[in-house]
Amino acid sequence: MPHASMMRQITDFANRADPYPVYEKLRGTPVLHEEEGGPYIISSYYDIKALLHDPRISSDAANLTAAGDDELARSEETGGLPPSFLRLDPPEHDRLRRIANSAFGPPHRPRRIESMQGDMREIVTGLIDGFGDAHEIDLVDQFAYPFPVTVICRLLGVPREDEPRFRAWVDPLVASLDPDTRQNGDADFQQTAQEARMQLGMYLAGLVEQRTKEPRDDLLSDLVNSRGPDGAMTMMEVLSTSVLLLIAGHETTVNLITNGMLTLLRHPDILRRLREEPGLSVRIVEELLRYEPPVQLVPQRTCIADIEVRGITIPKGSRIWLVLAAGNRDPERFEDPQRFDPDRGDIQHLGFGSGIHSCFGAPLARLETQIALSELARRLRDPRLVEDPPPYRPNAVLRGPRHLRIAFEGLD
Amino acid sequence: MAADQVEWLRREGRIVIVGASLSGLRAAETLRAEGFAGELTLIGDEPHEPYDRPPLSKSVLLGMASPQHTELPHRWEIDAKWRLGVAASGLDPTAKRVRLADGDEVEYDRLLIATGVRARPWPKEEEARLDGVCLLRTREDAADLYRRLKAGPRRVFVIGAGFAGSEVASACREMGIPVTVAERAGAPLVGALGGVVGAVAADLATENGVDLRTHVTVTSLEGDPVGRVQAVHLSDESVVEADVVVVSLGSLRNTEWLSGSGLGAGPRGIACDAGCRAFDFRGIVTDDVFVAGDVARSPHALFGYQFLSLEHWGNAVAQAETAAHNMICHGADRRPHLWMPAFWSSMFGVNIKSVGVPPMGEQLMITQGSLAERRFVGVYGYQGRVVAAVAFDNTRWLEFYQRQIEQGAPFPVEHPTVDRRPEGRRPVPADFPDPSLPTHGPMVTLSGYSPADQQLVFHPARH
User: Which InterPro entries match (chain A) (predicted)?
Assistant: First the structure.
């Protein structure tokens, strides 16, 4: 196929390890529409930024279905539950997000994330200690995967003794959301995922009921007992919000940590600096969000009016893909964009999106990744990649390595 | 200016910045960041290093931040001579000298004026001196007001329901202090946002327990025998007892020190071109005197080349950066100051933000959300184009509207938007007060008959 469409090239697994040459080609046609009924693909920084703030763009799942969705857009469906605020427009979106936010951050809960630092460090230390005497690990399975799900358990308020059960349900559920596993998975796998979903739902429902009666200092209690002008969430709303936090906050953080370690191991000078200077992790994580964003593109938006971008009219009802990872390396916006440079002063990346749907869990993801990377840098003696590039997961949207084998000389 | 002169200036010239607040500091930093290696002097009448003012009417009044700890972070080492606690008292642009209140003189090759504004005091001096009558502009003002609020006054009276006055009222309510606000117009924020949005602000204040009196003015402040304020008399003949009175009547531009300098400076600020170069009173642009921040008035191409003076935090920063750049570059590299006017405020738990110039708007459309819910975006239109937008608890959309303003997008807003309600389908009058209020601008007159002896004469005005 000498002229594979750009859409195909984006989803083509052969480009997963390094999609950036495809994105560079893509930016040559910043508003790309390849086929009747297909999406308009937007790849330059300023256009993406503008559309993320454009009130003529809808995130409503119903509009997307009407526009005829595609394999990428479907990849985050949660099955059976009402749409979460990620897939809603204002005013419903705003109401749910406000309630969720009042349980999560300032002004109502200014210290909820900060106060989890101790827990996060403890989990990270436990996971690294767990490497034991090994001189080679798979960072994904042994660290990046278990870390965020444990953090989310603590955030929601899942009792510690239930954490292993909880994780056993989340793993197949997350795996089943990957479009590729969904297509290729056998009947048994689908069955397991379906059961996990049900059991997780029932478990959460039970916990919600408990927290309604006896509130504690956790997110679930706040969601169901919110007394603000917006009222509290219904049981179904709490469930879909919890599942959203689980799904959206899980895979993305896994990938951010894994991509982070991969990038640092490819830039040993910066890894060395981080070892000496843990505070550097703040800037490293920001640059990572630009350089290797865990969400590569946003495929779920539709236009509710004709919109003109760079002289091209995108007709009402069209779907658009916003390729964040392409915008993040747009030379029109960033100097020397292909270079990983935590010292760049100007780093307004699109890694967390922008506008009303900008990443809800951003403060949590930032802190988790800062702690994870600085601790890995501090404790792994002389780490190096066993294979480069590592094997990748099929998902083109939530892109990241399936395994990341790291060899090292022991722990500090 | 010849190229070698610019090089000389950058290497060993003398730059003086009068005004050591946000604009002055950011300009100094930009000068150094862009390679100015000469002598830099900052003159400020306040005794402090530059500090941030927005918190003074918000978190500082609530005791959540100390008035002594709002220093502005330094973004760049500026290696400057600081002349703090001494005001500039005069300017001789021919000799290129700034006179200081202590009699000293400072010479410059380039001058930046960033003297900003001060709070407009209560006009009756004797009443203004009563204990308990407060202004809010400086760190000391904030510390004093905070102390008085913390002492638990029986009632606070705020004169003027602009942004600062409304923020003070909001802080009082949050602390559980009874507060009365008097406003000459029909609602709070009317001058900035018009009557339709002002009505929302009025509801917001009233619902939060503010005793809001509109269409009234304060006629006098009454003191007790020991000189403490005890009551406020209003034009509707009512009397309100209060032991703290906050005078929030807007600001005065700090330009008196320039009288006689020949610059186009007066109560409305100092006129300058889009490159931040000051005009002299004849309307001729100067080469070595620049202006930035609240005290500047400069033409904005997007708004019909109107001279805008903006008391906005972001404008102070952006204009300082442009002025600094233009002070030390070659003519062809000069940049215009094209900042999009924008300001924010928060009161009674609501975030308010605006872009563009709302008072230019004749009509208003609520394109997202609803006035009744107090969460909305309102778009202002003037002669068929979008000129401004305001958001109540909906600020994330404003980037879009800013671009609409920049592109001269058509008004009314016909295209659909998410969360458009029936009330937002049609424009309504924005309801700004009659702009023909008395002004106190300076007057320039033409004298002489034949072109050869025609002269412009500048008549400075009183504040």
Answer: Cyt_P450, Cyt_P450_B, Cyt_P450_CS, Cyt_P450_sf
